[in-house]
Design goal:
two-stranded parallel ribbon, binds tryptophanyl-5'AMP, Tyrosyl-Transfer RNA Synthetase, 2 domains, mainly alpha
């Protein structure tokens, strides 16, 4: 089985990325041949600083290895190292409609936040489809906010297959039922995000323990005192419960039963401690790995080589089926 996912290097990685995606990268790498892509080409579609992009790319590589991606098992690589991605994106642009790109909620939301809306922000999902389809991917571990992009990738693949003959496998999304959409701790009706959320409500994967504890202590809770999972009525508490369920390995019903009649205080402390216990070892490993830039360069060169080899046959078939004269 082929597994593929992508993650943007820009913006500090947060607990939502960890719970919704990175944890599942680590879990799924056991299930087949896995590719994890640091999507630097996607990160230039909104305002960014070139110097920061460089650092953010290496930092994310170190973070992914620190979180448990095993370079002997998984192919971890940087998107811009494999030119098949933008090439395939251009080709797939011919089977993607303006109308379907215009309907993408991420384009609408991010577009509203920008003064300058780039053409790249609009065609972003075509590059994402190329990422996934080039690897004949079966399974794509993602958070809930990427559901629509995955659906678009499937539609693009189906359209290409029916116009030019079966080339692409149709990928399935793997979205966690609990934790697929972690919310901002200060504004729990918004998803946790470094671009759209609040700084105090966004827990960084690399935040030190004291910062994490403070963010949970000041997390917004709901009226009432019962610890109950009801996302519509109690978005703050439900979000904290989902975080504890995943990082503490507990059932939502067991958390409800344990805190029956006890109020919020002790519950919030337990969530904070469970998050510190999950993230602190990652932060410590990250610091070691990030210090060794030569080793990161080596691992990323290895990943790029494997990714080029795995994607080349599909790109070649695309060109042939589409009627290009090949050199
Ligand atoms: P990105 O970099 O914004 O996020 C990386 C992963 O984290 C998930 N995620 C969340 N999960 C739960 N709760 C949250 N609050 C939360 N915020 C983010 C995202 O769903 C994602 O899985 N377009 C993609 C990158 C991409 C990609 C791909 C993904 C490019 N090509 C191919 C999969 C396959 C993005 O911007 O993710």
């Amino acid at each position: 089985m082929r597994i593929f996912s992508g993650i943007q290097p820009t913006g500090a990685k947060h607990l939502g990325n960890y719970i919704g995606a990175i944890r599942n990268y680590v879990a799924t790498q056991e299930r087949g041949e896995a590719f994890f892509c640091i999507v630097d080409l996607h990160s230039i579609t909104t305002d960014y600083e070139p110097e920061e992009l460089r650092e953010a790319t290496l930092s994310l590589a170190a973070l992914l290895f620190a979180a448990g991606l095993d370079p002997d098992r998984s192919t971890v690589f940087v998107q811009s190292h494999v030119s098949a991605h933008p090439e395939a994106a251009w080709l797939l642009g011919s089977v993607t409609s303006f109308g379907e790109l215009r309907r993408m909620t991420q384009f609408k939301e991010k577009g509203e936040q920008q003064e300058f809306v780039s053409a790249g922000l609009f065609t972003y999902p075509v590059l994402q489809a190329a990422d996934i389809l080039l690897y004949q991917t079966d399974l794509v571990p993602i958070g809930d906010d990427q559901r629509q992009h995955l659906e678009l990738s499937r539609n693009v693949a189906e359209r290409f297959n029916s116009r030019h003959g079966e080339i692409f496998r149709l990928p399935e999304a793997l979205i966690p039922e609990v934790g697929g959409r972690i919310m901002d701790l200060q504004e729990p009706t918004k998803k946790m995000s470094t671009t759209g959320g609040t700084p105090q409500g966004t827990v960084g994967v690399l935040d030190p323990p004291e910062t994490i504890r403070k963010k949970f202590k000041t997390a917004v809770t709901d009226s009432g005192t019962d610890v109950r999972h009801a996302p519509d009525d109690k978005p703050g508490i439900s979000n904290l419960m989902e975080i504890l369920a995943i990082v503490g390995g507990q059932e939502l019903s067991a958390i409800e039963a344990r805190y029956d009649g006890q109020g919020y205080g002790a519950f919030k402390d337990e969530v904070a401690e469970a998050v510190v216990a999950a993230l602190d070892p990652i932060r410590l490993r990250y610091e070691e790995l990030r210090a060794d830039t030569a080793e990161l360069d080596r691992l990323l060169a290895l990943g790029a080589g494997k990714a080029r080899e795995a994607s080349a046959p599909t790109l070649e078939r695309m060109y042939e089926r589409m009627g290009f004269v090949r050199p």
